């Protein structure tokens, strides 16, 4: 008898739940797009508007007339790319050291790094602002990104991934061939941890892209604005044009979707690799 190619018994409810969850996850983005194509009055309409309109271009032109949108997008892309590359380098080196080397205080320092994850970032806002201002980094992308260069989650992720994916025997064989630790990292470790790189890269890029509080604190010159700070300036205390605002938010979200689609294969590979092993 041929095996049935239909759904296995008991899987239909699971697929229904997944479809509902997917629709609920996608709907906010769809509604944002719909509002970006409507005049501001449609935001409070009853019943709510669920079909796209014809104001997408007009709303976006209002955004361009109000804020330096493309300059802010370039600043954001430059900031996020630089911080992401720096975090990937620092986290992978630190994770490699914690995973494969023994040194005094190794566990203590690793736990100390993890403990920084439970400290609310708002607690350090004032002293961090003071240090950045004393260094002369206000209104610079360096000042906006310096706090994100050391990422405890990234170090933890890289340590776990390298511990499980890089065999000690392979490192010992490389050392017998005369490879230095950096050569081992460059030639052996880096090719193996590409899926973890994609995962951490997406996390960090998204985190920095969506950061508002710190960027709003240190960036005061419109020429140095990132997208989040520039979009915040669209909020008028007396009147908010929701069509214009959500049009700016929509176009600010598009690069994130593109980044995810580009690295989606490696991201899924990193998630599923543990179950495959």
Automatic annotation (TrEMBL):
Pfam families: BPD_transp_1 (PF00528). Keywords: Cell membrane, Membrane, Transmembrane, Transmembrane helix, Transport. Residues 73-263 form the ABC transmembrane type-1 domain. It is a multi-pass membrane protein. It is found in: Cell membrane. The keyword Transmembrane applies. Belongs to the binding-protein-dependent transport system permease family. This is Carbohydrate ABC transporter permease. It comes from Halobacillus trueperi.
């Amino acid at each position: 008898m041929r095996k049935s190619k239909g759904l296995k018994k008991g899987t239909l409810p699971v697929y229904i739940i997944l479809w509902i969850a997917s629709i609920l996850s996608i709907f906010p983005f769809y509604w944002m797009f719909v509002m970006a194509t409507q005049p501001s009055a449609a935001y409070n309409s009853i019943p709510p508007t669920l079909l796209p309109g014809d104001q997408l271009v007009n709303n976006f032109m209002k955004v361009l007339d109000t804020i330096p949108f493309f300059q802010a997008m370039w600043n954001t892309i430059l900031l996020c790319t630089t911080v992401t590359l720096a975090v990937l380098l620092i986290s992978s080196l630190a994770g490699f050291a914690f995973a494969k080397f023994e040194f005094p205080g190794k566990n203590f320092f690793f736990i100390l790094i993890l403990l920084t994850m439970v400290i609310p970032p708002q607690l350090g806002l004032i002293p961090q602002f003071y240090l950045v201002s004393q260094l002369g980094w206000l209104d610079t992308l360096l000042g906006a990104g310096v706090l994100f260069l050391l990422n405890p989650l990234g170090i933890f992720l890289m340590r776990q991934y390298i511990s499980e994916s890089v065999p000690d025997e392979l490192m010992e064989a490389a050392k017998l061939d005369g490879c230095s630790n950096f050569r081992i990292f460059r030639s052996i470790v880096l090719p193996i941890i590409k899926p973890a790189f994609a995962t951490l890269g997406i996390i960090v890029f998204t985190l920095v892209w969506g950061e508002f509080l710190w960027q709003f604190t240190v960036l005061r010159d419109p020429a140095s604005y990132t997208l989040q700070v520039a979009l915040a300036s669209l909020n008028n205390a007396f009147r908010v044009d929701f069509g214009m605002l959500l049009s700016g938010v929509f176009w600010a979200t598009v690069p994130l979707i593109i980044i995810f689609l580009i690295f989606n294969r490696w991201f899924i590979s990193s998630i599923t690799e543990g179950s495959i092993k």
